[in-house]
């Protein structure tokens, strides 16, 4: 492998991880199409590299998010159980449902999620009258707060409708397993609309969750030989640097700007999914 190709891999991973890490999405959804279409990398090798990059991205930004009190670890553990069950269900359903139908369904879900996030432009302020002392969030002690640098103050938030959030997380894991894509793009709208989390908390918590999910599947990719060190090495290094950069941007950007940016990404991915449903591949396969 030539040195300039390694530098190109590093730059691609850095940009993808900075953007994906800031939004709490798996960087593979950007890395895989770029490596396959522009770099001529085999799809299986690209997916293997993206799996490792997701782990690196999650680990690289973890310290910044934890130090900034953005990641709700207790909530992440609760939601990850539902996502894992959904992914396991999806594995058993692979091949039963036509792929074109799945892409159309995924596009519709993304568009609905984008509309919901755009309508709810401001993060919710829960009053004492809206809080129910018997909620799951109270029992599991999921409520928390985080310091918002853009606002210059501590922001407390109440986690709401945990059963609905877990149901949506199950669906996110199911669809991601059926389509072979990262579920981060579905986790954040679910946390935003159902659990009513601030967008920064949703992004940081999703970033933590996708690292756990990727770590669980990385062993299988390694045993199959899909993780090629010469490709994965520069991608991992770029992912670590990019994730740290993305974490710093996330903590400084305003919630409204972050929400609008995420909506734009959702609409773009929905358009890509609709084209893929009709057999049009503009940017290669997503992963």
TrEMBL record:
Principal subcellular localisation of the protein: membrane
Annotated compartments: Cell membrane
InterPro entries: TM_pro_TauE-like, TSUP
Keyword Cell cycle annotated: no
Gene Ontology CC terms, in alphabetical order: plasma membrane
Keywords for this protein: Cell membrane, Membrane, Transmembrane, Transmembrane helix, Transport
The keyword Ribonucleoprotein is assigned to this record: no
Membrane topology of the entry: Multi-pass membrane protein
Transmembrane segments annotated in the record for this chain: 6-35, 47-66, 86-112, 168-188, 231-251, 258-283
Family stated for the protein in its record: Belongs to the 4-toluene sulfonate uptake permease (TSUP) (TC 2.A.102) family.
Protein name: Probable membrane transporter protein
Organism of origin: Candidatus Gallionella acididurans
């Amino acid at each position: 492998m030539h040195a300039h190709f390694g530098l190109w891999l590093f730059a691609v991973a850095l940009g993808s991880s900075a953007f994906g890490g800031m939004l709490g999405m798996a960087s593979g959804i950007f890395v895989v199409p770029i490596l396959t279409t522009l770099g001529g990398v085999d799809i299986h090798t690209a997916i293997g590299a993206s799996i490792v990059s997701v782990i690196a991205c999650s680990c690289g930004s973890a310290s910044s998010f934890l130090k900034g009190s953005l990641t709700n670890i207790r909530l992440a553990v609760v939601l990850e159980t539902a996502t894992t069950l959904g992914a396991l269900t999806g594995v058993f359903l692979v091949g039963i449902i036509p792929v074109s139908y799945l892409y159309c369904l995924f596009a519709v879900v993304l568009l609905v999620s984008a509309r919901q996030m755009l309508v709810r432009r401001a993060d919710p302020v829960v009053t004492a009258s809206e809080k129910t002392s018997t909620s799951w969030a109270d029992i599991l002690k999921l409520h928390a707060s985080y310091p918002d640098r853009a606002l210059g103050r501590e922001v407390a938030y109440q986690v709401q409708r945990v059963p609905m959030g877990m149901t949506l997380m199950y669906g996110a894991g199911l669809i991601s397993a059926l389509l072979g894509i990262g579920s981060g793009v579905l986790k954040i709208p679910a946390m935003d609309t159902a659990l009513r989390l601030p967008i920064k908390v949703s992004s940081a918590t999703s970033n933590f969750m996708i690292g756990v999910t990727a770590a669980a599947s990385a062993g299988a990719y390694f045993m199959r030989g899909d993780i090629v060190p010469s490709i994965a090495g520069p991608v991992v290094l770029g992912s670590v640097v990019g994730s740290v950069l993305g974490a710093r941007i996330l903590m400084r950007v305003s919630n409204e700007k972050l929400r609008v940016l995420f909506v734009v990404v959702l609409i773009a991915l929905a358009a890509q999914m609709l084209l893929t449903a009709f057999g049009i591949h503009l940017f290669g396969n997503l992963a």
